[in-house]
Amino acid sequence: MTVKDIAKNVIDALPNEANMDDIIHALYVNIKFKHGEHEIREGKGIAHEEAKKRLQKWAK
């Protein structure tokens, strides 16, 4: 599947009322999600417990 096909699928999944900001956001989220999946497959992710610890530091 080409990048253009992926973009079309993301846009087609949005409601007809979606505006340009919604489309850009959906494309951004999609690419970031794919990037994260790729990093996890390469062993670059962090454990769930470690993520929770890091988030607790930010929440203070």
Characteristic terms for this protein:
flat; 60 residues; single chain; 75% helix; mainly alpha
Description:
By secondary structure, the chain is an all-alpha fold. It has one domain. The protein is 75% helix and 0% strand. The protein has 3 helices and no strands. The mean pLDDT is 94.
Could you report the average pLDDT, rounded to the nearest whole number? 94
How would you classify the helix and strand content by structural class? mainly alpha
Count of helical regions: 3
Q: How far from one another are the termini?
A: 43 Å
Assess the beta-strand content as a share of residues: under 5%
The string of secondary-structure elements, in order, is HHH
- The radius of gyration is 16 Å
Largest sheet: none
Identify the quaternary structure here: single chain
Low-confidence stretches: none
| Percent helix range | over 70%
The domain count comes to 1
Shape: flat
- What is the number of strand segments? 0
